Structure formats: structure tokens, C-alpha cells
User: What shape does this take?
Amino acid sequence: MTDLADIAGAWTEPACLGLAVLSAIVPWFNAEILVLALPAVATSSLHLSGLVLLVTAGQMLGKCVVYWTSRGGRGMASPRVSRAIERWRGRFARRPWSPVALVLASSAIGMPPFYLVTVAAGALEVDFVRFIAAGTVGRLLRFGLLAFIPYLVL
Assistant: This one.
């Protein structure tokens, strides 16, 4: 007979990935709550590390959808929004690492909200590779710290 823990264990990784993607696209689904629950389902610290990597990958996969949707919908912006986008594009042109620093800070700290920064990055056509790199590093730092808090406290 199959043990309930075996059944639940078989769904841990796909569920974490799916919920991470969903939380990246739908802002009111919170990835941090998912990450805080990971120690309860992880079988070891190595498994927990793998789950953190999986949630980070899922988050960034979802952020790619948001980024490209925003980038593709840029032409549908109102004249006021279009002017604001051009103004910000000019500011970032003078400081090419500013958007990368903003993405890194937002993805690691959460302020400004990473969802809004992702939408802005797409609309401003921030270099996609830099966006993904900075976002992944920030999310990995944030999620790793949150997931390992119980180990640090104990």
C-alpha cells in the first residue's frame, strides 16, 4: 500500500514549480509564503536547496511571461504613459546599469514590488539577459534566506 507521504512527495516539485510560475504572473499569489512552507516538505537541507532553486526558476519563468507581455503591449499605451516610458528610457540610457541595479534590488528586497519592476523593464525594453540574470540572483538570495531561516534560528 502506498504511503500518503510518498504520494505527497511525488507532487512536491511539480506543485512548487507551478505555484511559483503562478505567483510570478498573478501578483496576489505570494511566492514568499510558498518559500516559507518549503522546510515543512523538504526531506533534507539538500532537498530544500533544490526546492529553492526550483521556485526561483518558476518565478523567473513567470516573470518572463510578464516581461514579454509588457514589452509587446508597449504600443498600446496611452500617450501619457508613452511619454513617461520615453522619459525613463532617456534616464536609463544615461546610466545603463541603473535598470539592472533596480531589478536586482527589487527581486532581492521586494521594494519596489518586483511585479511592477518587471512590467516596467519590459515596457522600457531593458536588456532581457541582464533582466533575467539580475532577477534570478535577487530571487535566489531572497528565497534562499527565507527558506533557511528555520535552520538559522535553530
Observations:
- The chain has a mean pLDDT of 88.
- Residues 4-153 form one domain.
